[in-house]
Write a structure and sequence with these properties.
The structure is a single chain. The protein is built from two helices and six strands. By secondary structure, it is of the alpha+beta class. It has two domains: 2-55; 65-138, OB fold (Dihydrolipoamide Acetyltransferase, E2P). The chain has a five-stranded mixed beta barrel with strand order 1-2-3-6-5. The longest helix is centred in the first third of the chain and has 53 residues, at 2-54.
């Protein structure tokens, strides 16, 4: 009988050890999940802060772009220039046309000689040269 009691106590200690290991395993897993979640939250927050530091206000970027484009009706064209009338400012403005100026009429490549007075155009000026046309796009759907 002594042997049976001894075997029962050994099995009790083994189950006790397994239970402790189970609790330790569950606690370690829970701590790992908590740490990973905290790191994800901190990473997201850091990304949001970085994004805000790189953001330019819309009004500032719009005012920079405002001077790079002109929309209006063609008043006069020649091989070296195009003059348009801007309906908003009610003024005529002449732009130089160079050999590098790209001309497009309704999405197709064209020549400056194909643009006639009365066409509605969008002119993209060359950076640093506000009186030189880099791109001229003719499209009747443009509005002032």
């Amino acid at each position: 009988m002594a042997k049976q009691v001894n075997n029962q106590s050994q099995s009790a200690s083994i189950s006790s050890t397994r239970t402790n290991r189970t609790y330790v395993f569950k606690i370690n897993t829970l701590l790992t999940i908590i740490v990973v979640v905290i790191l994800l939250i901190l990473s997201f927050y850091g990304g949001v802060l970085y994004g805000h530091s790189q953001h330019q206000p819309f009004s500032r970027s719009f005012s920079k772009a405002e001077h790079k484009f002109a929309i209006g009706l063609v008043v006069y064209t020649s091989n070296n220039s195009i003059t348009i009338n801007n309906a908003n400012t009610k003024t005529d403005r002449e732009y130089k046309v160079t050999k590098n100026t790209i001309v497009s009429i309704n999405g197709s490549p064209a020549k400056i000689s194909q643009i006639v007075p009365g066409n509605r155009v969008l002119i993209r000026v060359v950076r640093g040269k506000p009186s030189t046309a880099g791109v001229i796009i003719v499209n009747s759907k443009f509005t002032d």
